[in-house]
Amino acid sequence: MSSPTQREEHQRLLNDEEGTIFKDAPNRVALCYPSPYRAAMSSLGYQSIYRQVNECESLAADRAMLPDDAQDMLKRGELLHTMEANRPVAHYSMLAFSVAYELEIAGVIDCLRLCKLPPLATERPADAPLVIAGGPLTFSNPVPLAPFFDIIIVGEGEELFLELCTVAAKLGFERRRVCEHFAGKAGFYLPAVDADLCPPIAQASMASLPARSQIITPNTELRSMFLTEVARGCSRGCTYCVMRRSTNGGMRAIPPEEVLAGIPSHASRVGLVGAAVTDHPKITEIVAHLVDRGLEIGISSLRADKLDDNFVSLLGRGGYRTLTVALDAPSQRMRSEIERVTQERHVIRCAEMVRRHKLHTLKLYMILGLPGETDGDIDELVDFMMRLHKVHGKIALGIAPFVAKRHTPLDGEPFAGISVVEKRLKRLRKGLKGQVIVRPTSARWAWVEYMLAQGTSSAGLALYDAHLAGGRFADYKRAFKERGCEPTGPVARVLSSAEIQRSKREALRKRLVVQQ
Ligand code: SF4
Description:
Elements (H helix, E strand, L loop, with lengths): L3 H12 L11 E7 L3 H4 L3 H12 L3 E7 L4 H7 L17 E5 L6 H10 L15 E5 L16 E3 L4 H13 L4 H8 L5 E2 L1 H4 L30 E5 L1 E2 L19 E2 L2 H6 L7 E5 L9 H10 L3 E4 L9 H9 L4 E7 L3 H6 L6 H13 L4 E8 L6 H17 L3 E7 L16 H15 L4 E4 L2 H11 L3 H12 L4 H10 L14 H14 L6
Parallel strand pairs: 1-2, 1-3, 3-4, 4-5, 7-10, 10-11, 12-13, 13-14, 14-15
Antiparallel strand pairs: 5-6, 8-9
Helix pairs in contact: 3-6, 4-5, 10-11, 14-15, 15-16, 16-18, 17-18
């Protein structure tokens, strides 16, 4: 049994949920999320996999998330339990993690420690549960995940995950046999066999789209919102982005009738999700239908060049108070460099529409520290923000330092430097004189993200050392140094599936490093 505190907390959360699945099946898997509940239940991928596994006759999925008080639980020696079955996660035959971004790997380590399982795969005994990963991080660089997992599904994992569950069940969830079965198969990365050689990003078929929520709950970052995908992928070419058209062939739009048919009648708030939702050719039709039904709406990605008065007025009727669009880079020169189509006139028009339709705030987000950026670009940003402030008084600017990602044209570009990013932020703030709200993310943690995004499995091991040493920035700096981590530069070329399968079979013949 879980401790009364953990059980009480689970019960409180379950009581507030609509759509929870309690199911009996011969095979149960634990779906683990390495961040707390409110983030887990805002993840469309996590929710969608929960639904899909439970739709399979012989399978049932129970959820477990990183508890808010994980460190206290570790001190008390308390075991992590699942929500639906109140069963120790370590007693499941398979633990499947969804990992969204690099720094979340620390949450994976804590979840495994809360199961009393060695976080490093090579230290787990042969009869330990299978530990697998998938999720958004696998679109960029899953290699730092390698030390912790038996199998990693790379890219769009819906069908591959169900295949993995079904085969693993048939093989009695035996780690060695399951790993042997999947070695060399497209979309499956087996760190024990493949070392740092990761396969290309998998693509799901249209039949498994759209991803949809299963559970509606008020206890998430997206309070009581039902999420549904309207498109997968993106047809644009922003050079820093892993979702660009070169990943899985551009945008695949879901027909409006399919999107609308999947929204349950009890949903009162609907979130439309996709890499570039406003590029969907029928997005106005979908939003108008929902707003006319009296639903509140949220949209994951608005593109400034796609908005018009009709659309913004629909957003206002759908409960929007803050219009959030991407500005992307500080100057027109830098926006052109990264192949963004957004121009000043698009953003000025957004500010005018925010004022006209009586929304509250225009929020812009952008990247700082792109290759080739100078102080002159920051000065242009200051000038533009001041002009924008005159159009609409309430402007907020969200800023993230540039981190080069795999599978993008900017792969291998260096990090600008913590001091450079901080100096440019200072220059920006000074120029804006408090007229515009500036919300930057930390340059230090962006550097840690960069070391992982451009790193190999040794960067994952450095994160492990740093996290166990206390997880402070200084711990990371020291651990990267001690592990000899250097960003590896761009991946030379993407190997073909045939080449990868050949090399995997060869590696498998030589060694399958799963402990007996
Ligand atoms: S940044 Fe947005 S618009 Fe650009 S490629 Fe990525 S998802 Fe598409």
